[in-house]
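This section describes the prediction task in plain terms. A model, or a person checking by hand, is given the sequence of a single protein chain and must write out its three-dimensional structure as a string of tokens. No templates, partner chains or ligands are provided. The sample shown here is typical of the held-out split.
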Amino acid sequence: MTQSLDARTQSTQLDLKRLNQKFDKIHPKDILAWCVANFPTGLVQASAFDVDDLLVTDLLYREIKPKPPVPVLFVDTLHHFPETLDCVVHAKLHYQLKLKIFRVQGLKRRDEFTTQYGEQLWQTAPEQYIQLTQVEPFQRGLDELGAIAWISGDRRDQAPEQADLPIFELDPAGRLRINPLANWTRRETWAYVFEHDVIYNPLHDQGYTSIGDEPLTRPDQEHQSEYGGELPEPHYQPESSHW
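The expected answer:
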């Protein structure tokens, strides 16, 4: 169901400057607990099922456990790695996720996408590719889920342009975007993952710091693994994906 404009004013009327000052050094669990308490409905987690997203999911589903659970929005671009799709299946079963999957409008498989839009659209028309596979399904997902506020797994240390990433901000549609891991580092993320045995995409063990679409994603040659240390055994054995 599409969220009404009146409901979104709940986000636009917040004092973001005050909230960011209050929560900038607060643990992500406490930030998420505030969100759950203040947005009992209309709160959505956006997840690509990389390590930071799964950390947020672990906090929501193992630690906080809101009733009803926060929906997890996953955009299936039809071009994900098999390991990513396996990770989605495993996380759904492990946490009993309220998983909501959105795909390219009217398509369900990569070969259908190729038939309709041609080979390697990510090279021939990259902006169209991103719009079709990522932007439109994501916005449609937020609309259909009635999102007032949504949660990301972004950190300030992930990229220079994110150095000033706030905990709370408004997205272009006027929804509240929450970045509970903004003030964490990669080291803190992996410390939490190992301490709490959080599942993660095994591609991180192969040096992928960020995992997106298979044609566009390459491992980081500077690191043996995303966390820069010795490689542990994957927390699960990949299996054939099914939806």
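For orientation: The chain has one domain: 5-216.
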